[in-house]
Design a protein that fits this description.
The structure holds two protein chains of two kinds.
Chain A: H1 3-31, H2 34-52
Helix pairs in contact in A: 1-2
Chain B: H1 4-28, E1 38-52, E2 56-68, E3 77-88, E4 96-106, E5 112-119, E6 124-127, E7 135-146, E8 152-163, E9 169-170
Antiparallel strand pairs in B: 1-2, 1-9, 2-5, 2-6, 3-4, 3-7, 7-8
Chain lengths: ~80, ~170
């Protein structure tokens, strides 16, 4: 993963978890079902884990540009 | 964020914070659920009233109970515990309290009780001989146990000034 990929992964898991939490609470309260709310939260957590934890290829689209190896001869420290 | 383990750590920490927020919200919704209970108790008669060993007295009652606990339940209620308590004054103490019926109602159980003939589950025992000709008050106490949040309690007076017999007897 490169830097932009890490930022993307963090943004993704935060959004997924917050949206799932709000959605879960609203649906749970409306349906008067506490267990349903917990199930929605668990589903959101699983989704966030699958999307954000493994090193998927779309996280490595901006590879780090390393400075090329210098051609200067090594300095002697004599 | 360099490794998958540190990502996993951050993700699970954040999800725990989300869980805490959701539990706070669920606990807060209890404000909009006023709890009340419909209860009527009629003491039909005294079945047994006798003296027992060590200078104490025992009372067995036959009662009719109408109890509706359904309004005590909300989406956040796990179970309700209620008990019936007999109160009387004696020479030694101003207020004696004896629990004679108790029950746990789970959120999936039957919530309405219409019992025509019930006896007290636990004997009403008075230390000393203060019950003859005394008056009895009966109160219902309930506790609603939430899934998350604060315990709610309440009580309802059911019977006031029930007069007990002057003499011991066993009716059965």
């Amino acid at each position: 993963m490169d830097w932009k990929g890490q930022k993307l992964a963090e943004k993704l898991y935060r959004w997924i978890l917050v949206v799932t939490t709000v959605f879960g609470f609203v649906v749970g309260y409306w349906q008067e079902d506490f267990a349903l709310m917990m199930q929605i939260l668990a589903a959101g957590l699983s989704l966030a884990c699958v999307i954000c934890i493994p090193d998927w290829p779309f996280y490595s689209r901006n590879p780090i540009k390393w400075i090329p190896v210098s051609k200067k001869p090594k300095k002697n420290t004599d | 964020m360099h490794s998958w383990t540190s990502r996993a750590n951050l993700l699970f920490s954040f999800s725990t914070s989300c869980l805490a927020v959701v539990c706070l919200l669920a606990a807060a919704t209890e404000w909009w659920h006023p709890k009340e209970v419909d209860a009527h108790l009629e003491i039909r008669r005294v079945e047994t009233f006798k003296s027992v060993t060590k200078g104490n007295e025992m009372l067995a009652l036959n009662m009719k109970l109408d109890l509706d606990t359904s309004k005590l339940f909300s989406w956040n209620t796990k179970q309700v515990f209620f008990w019936l308590q007999a109160e009387f004054a004696s020479g030694r103490h101003e207020n004696n309290q004896v629990t004679f019926v108790d029950h746990i109602v789970r959120s999936t159980d039957r919530k309405v009780f219409r019992e025509e003939n019930i006896r007290n589950e636990y004997p009403i025992v008075s230390r000393g001989r203060a019950l003859r000709g005394n008056t009895l008050n009966v109160t219902l106490h309930w506790e609603a146990l939430p899934k998350v949040g604060a315990l709610r309690v309440g009580s309802v007076p059911l019977v006031r000034g029930y007069l007990l017999p002057q003499h011991y007897f066993v009716d059965g």
